[in-house]
Structure formats: structure tokens, C-alpha cells
């Protein structure tokens, strides 16, 4: 099989096309012919050796997100059959319940090989069936960004109609958060410094989009838009540069799902957390059961992921470069066809 590997994480140019023997599924494992994969910010950090959790395994096959068709199953497999359309789960060994150590050691595209390959062996409990209305390219966007947004809003934030959700920027997690919030009948306030992206957010249902460069204290605008109350749930992807604003933009007793570190890390003052009785919850993707619940909602609502651009398999490096440019709106996908 053909696959991409990272022999030594020294930047996008270190991505190398390689040839490996076709794998065989073991007991309760599934062999998937990958039809499409997608990129996340984590993938850029991994290839540039900036990922803080741990160093990637040698000759890692990157990308946590991918979708394809089951072509073989190992002994004892009952959840899927040959011909099923599936997506892999970010963590192969987090089926449900609270996250645990074994889950962290099964994160695809980091601790173990990922989906930028023609064939991938997945755990039977580490995959889900795709909603019928989605293409492989659309299904490949779900495992990390969509499940993360669902975890933050539904599993932790207990999202309900009429809630106010604060999102940041136009990356995959934020766009899915907007779509899920609207699906539940919630209000959405966004931030973006690019006028064209702000208009797209509004067309998708955002009530207002604040230019965070023109309005550095953007939390004050969120408070105005909510009558001084603040957002019920904030989907925090910025890190140190945005967290202090998120503290003040979120209502007393509200929830902040801490997801990303796009603006870096630093020491933060915890006093606003105490004074506003905020709940901060770190969100590291989610379990197979969360993925299945999300897919049921996606299928019922016929929700379609937002794809910025699809690159052919031969142009994987160009897909990484597009991610690094930060010009995308939604997800960047690689077609393996």
C-alpha cells in the first residue's frame, strides 16, 4: 500500500510518500480502504514537532481523521461488515465513559499510525458507520473537529434551545459548533477579523460576528449582545490570548470548553473563574459513543460539513500548506480516490 510517513518531524517537507505491505486485521479489528482524510491544527503541530503531549512514533503515518470502506474483518468482529462505510475514531480505545490512560495511547496520527494511507487497520470499537447522506470526503471531516464540538456543547455544555454560544474564528471546530448550535435552536456569536469570513458565518446563522482586531475587548460586545448576561457556553480554541476574554464573555455559572492553543500558552489569572463561578472543561475530542450520538443527530438533521478545499492524495503537502496559511473556512480534505 501507499502511505505518507513523517520520518523526522521537521516541517511539511518532511512528509514522505512510502510503500508498506498491506496490513491484515487481527481479532476484532477491521481493514478499511481509506477514501478520504482531513487535517486538523494538531496535524500541523505534529509535523512541525510542536505537539506538546508526546513525540510522534518514528515513521508515523499522520492524520487522525479519515473515512472509507470496510474491505476485511478479523475474527470476532460483529459491529461492522465488509462493504460498510465508516470513519475511524480519533482514539481507538475510548469506546465510552470517562477518558482513561489507554485512550491517550491510542490517538491516531500521533501515538499510533493515522489515516493518510490507502489501507488502515482499526479497532472494531474504534470506528463508526457514516451517516448515509454524507460522502467519504464529508465523513472524513468528523472524527476530531465535529466530535470535539459535540463534546463541548452537548456532553459538557448540555446545549438547549435558546442558549447563547460563543465561538472563535472559522476553523473546523468553530464551524461545527455553529452548525450544532443552530441545529439545537441556540443563538451564536462569533469572532473573526476577516470580513468575508464574518459574512459567511452570518449566512450560516451566526447572530453577530465581532472583529477581534478592531474590537480587542470583544467580550464587551458579547455582553452587550446578550443584555449584560454573557454566553451560556464558550467554545474556546484560542488559548492564552483569548481565555481572559472568554472568562468575561461567559455568563456567571456558564461553561467554557477549552479546546485549542492557537494563540499559545501563558500563566493566567484564575480570579475570574472564581468570581464568575465558571466551569472550565478541557475537551480532548471524544469517545466512540459520543461519535455515534453525534452521527444520529447529523443524520436526522441532514447536516452537511463545510469543506473549504479538497486536495488529491498526491498533493498532501499542498493540503498542509493550505492549513498553515490559515486562509481556510471549515475543513481541508484529502481525497484518496
Task: Write up this protein.
There is one protein chain. This protein is of the alpha/beta class and 337 residues long. The protein has two domains: 171 residues, Medium-chain alcohol dehydrogenases, catalytic domain (Quinone Oxidoreductase, Chain A, domain 1, Alpha-Beta Complex), CATH 3.90.180; 137 residues, Rossmann fold (3-Layer(aba) Sandwich), CATH 3.40.50. It is 28% helix and 24% strand. Strands 3, 4, 5, 6, 7, 14 and 15 form a seven-stranded mixed β-sheet that branches. Strand 9, helix 6 and strand 10 form a beta-alpha-beta unit. The protein is globular, with a radius of gyration of 19 Å. The mean pLDDT is 95.
Quick take:
The chain has 337 residues and is an alpha/beta fold. Helix content is 28%, strand content 24%.
Order of helices and strands: EEEHEEHEEHHEHEHEHEHEHEHEHE
Roughly how much helix do the residues carry, as a percent range?
25-40%
CATH class of the largest domain: Alpha Beta
Number of strands: 15
Overall pLDDT confidence:
95
Oligomer: single chain
Describe the sheet with the most strands.
7 strands, mixed
